[in-house]
Amino acid sequence: MSELRQRPIATSKSSNGPDKESNPRQHTINDETDQDHGISLLDIIRVIVTLLLACGGLSYYMTSSESVLWGYRPWYTRWPVVKQWVQGPVTLTPSQLSLYNGTDTNLPLYVAVNGTIFDVSANRMIYGPGGSYNFFAGRDATRAFVTGCFKEDLTNDLRGVEIMFLPVEDVEDEGVTSAQRKIRREKELRAARARVEETVKRWTGFFANHAKYFEAGRVVEDGGVHGEPWPLCESAQKQRPKRSAMMEKS
């Protein structure tokens, strides 16, 4: 039995070429192209800061070294106001308030209007000793602010002060009944009291909104207003309108 010998089949190994490795991407920079750069945030900040400094410097020069904000001085930029805010409002009786009349330079200078105390230390030339308005210092002289009698009315007693706005009955009203006079009188009295309140409010606002003054506290009456009402001063009496003049205008 013959054996069939088979020649080994030569298996041809297919040889694949070496794997081609992928080359990494290369970022090219085009040096020939000019890139436009916009305004950065830092540039904007620099411009704003420069303008603010220039504006503040001009304000400091124009206001004679008083303010870098064109006269506007927030309370937190004024040391006396900040100090008062930290310490809190003061509460003084009239006798205690009298100590703050400028005699003691270690104490602030106070003026009170309708129970509200204002610090006027920034203007000692006017409210301090020898000043033209020193009589207002260390007291509540609300009545004097209404009547204009700075010597006689240095008190906070406003009782009867509305009389200065009531007409003097210098003529007889013919044809006017007593009931009509009463109604007219009540109406004029309400108007007179409103004028007193308006005047007090105006002076309170003057000190409250002043660039150099600020509110410091309140006055607490140690005995209250008592006794006879304060008499109307001569100057205020002369300012009273006359009924005859009012009738002529009407």
Short description:
With 250 residues, the chain is of the alpha+beta class. Helices cover 35% and strands 7% of the residues.
Description of the molecule:
This protein is α+β, with helices and mostly antiparallel strands and 250 residues long. It has 2 domains: 42-72; 74-248, Cytochrome b5-like heme/steroid binding domain (Flavocytochrome B2, Chain A, domain 1), CATH 3.10.120.10. Helix content is 35%, strand content 7%. It has helices at 41-62, 79-87, 94-97, 124-127, 142-147, 178-208, 234-238, 243-249, and strands at residues 90-92, 110-113, 116-119, 214-219. The chain has a 4-stranded mixed beta sheet with strand order 1-4-3-2. The longest helix is centred in the last third of the chain and has 31 residues, at 178-208. It is extended and about 85 Å long.
Secondary-structure topology with pairs:
Blueprint: H1 41-62, H2 79-87, E1 90-92, H3 94-97, E2 110-113, E3 116-119, H4 124-127, H5 142-147, H6 178-208, E4 214-219, H7 234-238, H8 243-249
Parallel strand pairs: 1-4
Antiparallel strand pairs: 2-3, 3-4
Q: What does the radius of gyration come to? A: 43 Å
**Total helix count?**
8
- Number of β-strand runs: 4
> What is the fold-level CATH name, i.e. the topology of the largest domain?
Flavocytochrome B2, Chain A, domain 1
Domains (count): 2
| Mean of all residue-level pLDDT scores | 81
User: What is the first-to-last residue Cα distance?
Assistant: 162 Å
Structural class assignment: alpha+beta
